[in-house]
Write a structure and sequence with these properties.
Elements: E1 9-12, H1 19-29, H2 34-39, E2 42-45, E3 63-64, E4 72-73, H3 76-95, H4 106-116, H5 122-130, H6 136-152
Parallel strand pairs: 1-2
Antiparallel strand pairs: 3-4
Helix pairs in contact: 3-4, 3-5, 3-6, 4-6, 5-6
Length: 153
């Protein structure tokens, strides 16, 4: 079995964005705050501008979260594209001496597990990733991340 990291957080966007509300939610439900300390789970309440890096059409593919009104998750392929780009960007920035977070294999292993589990198609993933308008250096790095994913599938 491929090891995947268990995460106990969720990233939330508020649409339309409301910075004051995000800050209040973060103070109550964010990492190392009361809810997290009591349950072990936490939320990251992020700026909706991050969605600018999502594949085109992502809103139409949102998946309703069972048991919650008006709460949706990114469709798995859209989520995978963002994780590939984040992994590629972190590697690129570190190589250029800009710092950044070491993402390791966590995101790659998650994507491989989703592919092996039939939760998404490799062809669809490639097509959506190819449709992104990234700068050339990031395209090259994303291609390397995809090669690693394909080697593990």
């Amino acid at each position: 079995m491929l090891g995947t990291a268990v995460t106990l957080d969720a990233d939330f966007f508020i649409d339309p964005d409301d910075q004051t509300l995000r800050e209040k939610l973060e103070a109550n439900f964010g990492e190392n705050h009361a809810f997290h300390n009591a349950t072990g789970h936490y939320g990251d309440f992020v700026d909706l501008r991050l969605s600018e890096s999502f594949p085109e059409g992502w809103r139409e593919r949102l998946v309703p979260m069972q048991g919650f009104d008006n709460v949706f998750a990114l469709e798995p392929v859209d989520m995978a594209v963002t994780k590939i780009a984040a992994t590629a960007r972190s590697r690129l920035w570190r190589r250029l001496g800009r710092g950044g977070v070491e993402r390791g294999m966590k995101d790659i292993n998650t994507i491989v597990a989703l592919l092996k589990g039939g939760r998404m198609s490799l062809d669809t993933l490639k097509k959506r990733l190819d449709g992104m308008d990234y700068e050339p250096s990031l395209i090259v790095e994303c291609s390397q991340v995809m090669r690693e994913i394909e080697a593990l599938v």
